[in-house]
Amino acid sequence: MRVLMVANPKGGVGKSTLSTNLAGHLAWRGAPDGSVRVMLGDVDRQQSAKAWLSLRPAGVPRISSWALEAGQPARPPKGTTHAVIDTPAGLHGEKLKGLLKLADAVIVPLQPSLFDILATRSFLEGLAELKAAKGVQIAIVAMRVDPRTRSAEQLERFTDSLGLPVLAHLRDTQNYIQLAAHGLTLYDVPESRVAKDRQQWVPIERWLRLLES
């Protein structure tokens, strides 16, 4: 099972938006032949991923939640091939270390402002060391940003210094908000409706395929 962890200890950076659409892409990719079975889970007490999954309509590619049994720890449903784990703000210490041991890759959503960069500097530096020591794949996705801006350039310079790639720059759009309200992702609606956003996801899709090659 491939485990993708979406993490940033700072709140409000777009972790759930990124997590749900990652799961949506994987489920959509495996829908034709059923070769991919996707789980979306989180380690937040609020279980926001589970609440989002309850909104998904019939007829879209299936995404599962944790299998829960009384007195037993949460675990992926049997047959799961890919798990996307959404993590809460403030994740640190032993809980973070434990999750990192399970992850095949970590994707960090980050808004390219100086304040966001400073707030996550030590976290990103720790991930860069983990990548160097254990080979865990780590990448950043810039959220709510125009790649032509100075703030985007600033983010690129900072991440380059750590050896961490910025996979994509996702624009600030209501599409994510409107789709999430119905338990949907960019991959659950006609591509023509979200063409600009789907185009921005192409390098993320390519990176995910490279993880499995």
Structure notes:
With 213 residues, this protein is an alpha/beta fold. The chain has one domain: Rossmann fold (3-Layer(aba) Sandwich). The chain has eight helices and seven strands. It has helices at 15-30, 48-53, 93-102, 114-134, 150-162, 174-180, 195-200, 202-211; strands spanning 2-6, 38-42, 63-64, 82-86, 105-110, 137-143, 166-170. The chain has a seven-stranded parallel sheet, with helices on both faces. β5 (105-110), α4 (114-134) and β6 (137-143) form a beta-alpha-beta unit. The two termini are 14 Å apart. The model has no long low-confidence stretch (mean pLDDT 89). Residues 4-185 form the CobQ/CobB/MinD/ParA nucleotide binding domain. InterPro entries: CobQ/CobB/MinD/ParA_Nub-bd_dom, DNA_Partitioning_ATPase, P-loop_NTPase. It comes from Niveibacterium microcysteis. It holds the Pfam family CbiA.
Which labels suit this protein?
seven-stranded parallel β-sheet, alpha/beta, about 210 residues
CATH evolutionary superfamily: P-loop containing nucleotide triphosphate hydrolases
Rg estimate, integer Å: 17 Å
Could you tell me the mean pLDDT?
89
Number of helices: 8
Compose a concise summary of this entry:
The chain has helices at residues 15-30, 48-53, 93-102, 114-134, 150-162, 174-180, 195-200, 202-211, and strands spanning 2-6, 38-42, 63-64, 82-86, 105-110, 137-143, 166-170. It is an alpha/beta fold and 213 residues long. The chain has a single domain, classed as P-loop containing nucleotide triphosphate hydrolases (Rossmann fold, 3-Layer(aba) Sandwich).
